[in-house]
Amino acid sequence: MITTYSTIFRAALGIFPHEFRERFADEMALVFAERCGERPALHRPLFVLSEIVSVIITGARFRIAGHSRQQAMKAAVVLAMLATTLTMRQASPVPAARIDFNGRDPAGVFTITVVNGKAIAATLDRVPVAVSKIVQKGENISIVGDDGGVALAVAFDASRGEISWKARR
Fold this sequence. Notes:
Oligomer: single chain
Strand order of the largest sheet: 1-2-3-4
Largest sheet: 4 strands, antiparallel
Shape: globular
Distance between the termini: 40 Å
Number of helices: 4
Order of helices and strands: HHHHEEEEEEEE
């Protein structure tokens, strides 16, 4: 069943511009499959729905910023209908509000997981970061390095729908 969910998730990634998909789709799909597999089978449909809705919203923002609104809206409607149909087949409790941010800079890949507005997990170069090294102040999240300095600082601007960080070297 995870293969089916992964296929649907990959289809949802089609809403992103081609250049974005070329660069990030494989890693996004891999992370999605891993996280989907970590959930009990009963909880997977709502997890899939929440991830697909997130992809649709984010992809639509990318498209709208690129002035391809009509294509983005068509894709969003089709994917939302598909995700809703899939989820309605198996009802389960509503999951917590979760954001899984995956980024890449010259130093490598990193992830930050935020649940109900709180950063709860992170990785740098696919290595888990101790929770004690994740510092959150409002919508800003810093990862403390082994030397005690800031290894990565990420700023979320919810009002503008933007995430930014200074590239590591």
